[in-house]
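Researcher: Can you fold this with flavin-adenine dinucleotide in place?
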Amino acid sequence: MDLPTTADIVIIGGGVMGASAAYHLATRGMKEVVLLERNKFFGQESTGKCAGGVRHQFSTEINIRLSLESLPMLERFREEMGQDVNHRQCGYLLVATNEKDANAFKRNVELQNRLGAQTQLLSGDEIRARLPLMRFDDAIAGTFNRKDGLVDPNSVVMGYVNAAAKSGAKTISDVEVTGMRVSGDQIEVVETTQGLIKTRMLLNAAGPWSSQVGQMAGVHIPVIPIRRQMFTTNPLNEIPEDFPFVIDFAQSLYFHRDGDGLLVGMSNQNEKPGFDQSVDEDFELVNVEAAIERMPLLERASRASHWAGLYEVTPDAHPIFGGSNVRGFTICTGFSGHGFMHGPISGKLMSEYILDGKFSTVDVSMLDLARFDEGRLIKEYNVV
Ligand SMILES: Cc1cc2nc3c(=O)[nH]c(=O)nc-3n(C[C@H](O)[C@H](O)[C@H](O)COP(=O)(O)OP(=O)(O)OC[C@H]3O[C@@H](n4cnc5c(N)ncnc54)[C@H](O)[C@@H]3O)c2cc1C
């Protein structure tokens, strides 16, 4: 598709955020919505590399509210968008092995229940009974929500991209945004590898690269890229169909079914910020050893694949929604490791902000860019 020379909005980044925003803006009747992705295909960066987990289990009211809106949108996705997203409600089971996490889990479950998420608190014995294939002698508490689960990220992105295009949006890949022109304090032009687009509005949905995109207009966005990696195994007959998404919280170690095998990941707490997306083989060994400790049958498993991707991390592990010091420069980024699941509602919220000037479905106005300068940070505990 040829690059248009004008647009009512240019959305930069064709991951889940950009795709969802393009869909919600176009279906609300915004004309000349242009979605630009620099890769050949949409959704191949953080979104395509993520674990596909969707959960209600957070520690802050705002993240729980985002899940309470977003997860039903994923449940209805096939019916509403005509795109199957392989939605599986296997539940998330978070395991605490120390008192500090157990106490935090108790508070989190109370908050989740109060807001309408039916998460249960489990004892160590209940965890051991539910996970006979795992070794959790040290588990002291856990939490389980049966409505949490797994969704295929690529299907969600392509569902939104195709539906946005049907509603008139121009969805263009293989085009990189390289610069911006600001006149006074107003966005005027987006520069790309294929030419210029005149526009007075843009949405920065560039995920781990959103700080770089901000710099093009002189907007400081405190998002840093942090590498995260995982591997999958070949089929393991022992893993039951309903095996939950298990998180050994203290180690940031997680397991979920992937086809007939398992997907296993672990966050390296010493990872330095950077854009390197090669697999760190030394850390993979640490991950494999920790995983075998928890699930001895993995000793017999073989690796099917492995990859690394980037978290887009903010100082308080909450996203950034809204405007900036440059008029027309809007932002939806910084989901800090759990953004895929919030993609549906986030695109909708940005369409509300851009078309109505306010967030209606969930009030996320406290998650503005200015909070970092004004010291209004809101810390999330359940970061994996
Ligand atoms: C290993 C891993 C596991 C994860 N697991 C989960 C999980 O289980 N559940 C969950 O909810 N979240 C998970 N996440 C987090 C989730 O993937 C992200 O929060 C989410 O996908 C961010 O979406 P995005 O659209 O902001 O970013 P992206 O998907 O990275 O999209 C941004 C896009 O912008 C494009 N771009 C950048 N710069 C430019 C430019 N100058 N011009 C044009 N295009 C540009 C990029 O190519 C990219 O495609 C995980 C992440 C990783 C890395």
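Model: Folded with flavin-adenine dinucleotide in place. The mean pLDDT is 97.
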